[in-house]
Amino acid sequence: MIEVRSLTKHYGNLTAVDNLSFEVAPGEVLGFLGPNGAGKSTTMRMIAGFLTPTSGTALVCGHDVQSDAIAARRAIGYLPEGAPSYPEMTPRSFLAFIAAIRGLATETASQRIAAVTEQLHLESVFDQPIDTLSKGFRRRVGLAQAILHDPQVLILDEPTDGLDPNQKHEVRNLIRAMASDKIIVISTHILEEVHAVCSRAIIIANGQRLADDTPAALEARSRYHQAVSLTVNEQTDIESVRTTLRNLPDVRSIENDERTIIAFPQPGTTLLPQVTALANQHGWQLDGLQQERGRLDEVFREITVGEAAA
Ligand code: ADP
């Protein structure tokens, strides 16, 4: 369990984190979302015990990160923002060094180093100085050190930053695979990542929590939630499709962009079966037909825009 209690951080006159409280339970992957400067990294650094709060505290597996720092740190793996800063070391020497700092017994250390090296595909660069590695490999070395001691809690600051799409996919799979028996907190500004890995998302701006919900519930706040979008081909008269849809009692409004029409439902109604039936009845030629889940980017903007500018 992570328990964050009234966590606050001031930098001079700036309140970077403002009286934040929340709990995270085992099995949860919590996505920390917010615009740049929202206070995500500052919060994660305080939970990881790398930054002293101005007030408030955090408990990790029952250990206060300040008064019981060693026990708390033992339970935590932390991937800081950016890449690890031991440029002259190789992944081999870096991971051996971390294993020693973590106090792993020799045999356990060798087993864990082998395991994380395989999990993060570091074999090909194992003996290469870290400063000669690509950003993606450096990120993976950072992740390897975070999971080396198989901690109960993982705090990962932008874990897929700098990775190519295949590597992002692999790291997301790894996070999902680790999620069942751990508590994972990740920060990200990539909204698709929230779908891909998070069971819950907290949106913050100006150091304050503005939303705390499942990704699906956040999407349901979008005006696109359950809207039906259909793309008609050149053989179909788009105006007659528009008129037919607009006349449906369950359609609240219609928008269109070139050959794609979006029909927004009246609250509590489901349009897709009706639209499908009409398409068959009128012989509309469709290149695409789908019901939208809702657009997280739009919800995120709505929640954070006014706040971030304040
Ligand atoms: P995020 O991770 O959401 O982008 P940060 O936690 O890095 O946000 O930063 C929150 C705010 O605190 C920002 O306005 C940032 O400029 C400020 N800040 C972060 N670290 C420091 C520092 N060491 N000294 C002064 N201001 C800082």
Detailed description of the structure:
The chain is α/β, with parallel strands linked by helices and 310 residues long. It contains eleven helices and 14 strands. It has helices at 40-47, 69-74, 91-101, 106-119, 135-147, 165-179, 191-197, 215-219, 238-246, 272-282, 296-309; strands spanning 2-11, 14-24, 29-33, 55-60, 63-64, 76-79, 153-157, 183-188, 200-205, 208-213, 228-232, 251-257, 260-265, 286-291. The strands form three sheets. The protein has a six-stranded mixed β-sheet with strand order 6-7-8-3-9-10, with helices on both faces. It starts with a strand and ends with a helix. Bound molecules: adenosine-5'-diphosphate. Adenosine-5'-diphosphate binds at residues 11, 14, 16, 34, 36-42.
Characteristics of this structure?
310 residues, six-stranded mixed β-sheet, four-stranded antiparallel β-sheet, 14 strands
